[in-house]
Structures are given as structure tokens and as C-alpha cells.
């Protein structure tokens, strides 16, 4: 499989900070409120595009550790001392809050329309999906891009196995062990 060279361009220079929604923006606050909101709103779509570009850059195989750390600092501003193995995917990044010494194996996806809190000393296995959003059951509303968020809380000293799915509203207590291929409901 050929290695694809990464784009080293700072995507943020192409997208002024005021063009995308940030955590202080009213669109962002509506998203976090738990009410139904339009995921296609321009500022939110641009914030997701920015995060996806940073994920893409992080997942490149030819970056130094220093370059990856710089990308992670922009992508996950609320995560302290996090260890991530590529590939990693998220919607926004800014809604992911991680304590110290958190480790995520490769292939983790965090759909962070709602806040995702991960306690200290937690390990997350490969292929885990953390989904902090709901889609409507009504196809018309779903096709129009409506969704609502619900936060997820993962305690400290938690071990999450491979290929686990964590659904909106889940609360995983401190010290829990979630076995491979489990589904954790809210």
C-alpha cells in the first residue's frame, strides 16, 4: 500500500476563526443544550471540516511526534496528557475532555456533538466508537440534518475493550471494565 504524503499546510489559515462556530458561539451552545439543532448550520459544518482536516493531518504516517503533538493541541484543547494512536477521528474535538494519562488505541472515533468526559488513567481499545448524538426517527427530519446531543461520562481508571460502542447519555463509573464488542447505552 503506497504511503500518501500529508498536507503540512495549516488549514486554519484557510478558515478564519470567526467563520466557524467555537464553543462560545450561540450555535455551539445550542448544540450542547440537548435540544434539536441543525447540524448543517454553516458555522458547525465549518468547525467539523476544520477538525476533520486536523484528524487527517494527525493520521499521516510521515509526521514527527512534535508535529503530531502540535496538531493534537489544536484538535483536543481540553485533553491533558492524552496518548493517541492513529487513526483517530472526531467531529469537533473541542467537546472532548480528558484527564491525565488517557490512552486511545488506533481506530477510535468520537462523535462529540455533545461533551465527552474521559477520566484520568483510562484506556480505550481499538475500534471504539463514542457517539454523543441522536438522530431523529423521522426520516424527513433526519434527511434535513436535525440531531441533538447528549453528554457521555467515562470515569477514571476505566478499561474499555476493543470495538466497544458507547451511546449517547452513557455514564461509565470509575474502575469499570467494559469487555470487547460491548454496547454501552445511556
Give a brief description.
The protein has 4 helices and 17 strands. The chain is an alpha/beta fold.
Please tell me about this protein's structure.
This protein is of the alpha/beta class. Helix content is 22%, strand content 24%. The protein has helices spanning 26-32, 42-58, 65-75, 139-143; strands at 37-38, 82-84, 88-90, 96-98, 102-104, 108-111, 116-118, 123-124, 129-131, 133-134, 146-149, 152-154, 159-160, 165-166, 171-172, 177-178, 183-184. The protein has a 5-stranded parallel β-sheet, with no helix packed on it. Strands 3-6-9-14-17 form a 5-stranded parallel β-sheet. It is globular and about 40 Å long. It starts with 25 loop residues before the first helix and ends with a strand. Residues 1-19 have low confidence and may be disordered.
Itemize the secondary structure elements and their pairings:
Elements: H1 26-32, E1 37-38, H2 42-58, H3 65-75, E2 82-84, E3 88-90, E4 96-98, E5 102-104, E6 108-111, E7 116-118, E8 123-124, E9 129-131, E10 133-134, H4 139-143, E11 146-149, E12 152-154, E13 159-160, E14 165-166, E15 171-172, E16 177-178, E17 183-184
Parallel strand pairs: 2-5, 3-6, 4-7, 5-8, 6-9, 7-12, 8-13, 9-14, 12-15, 13-16, 14-17
Antiparallel strand pairs: 1-11, 10-11
Helix pairs in contact: 2-3
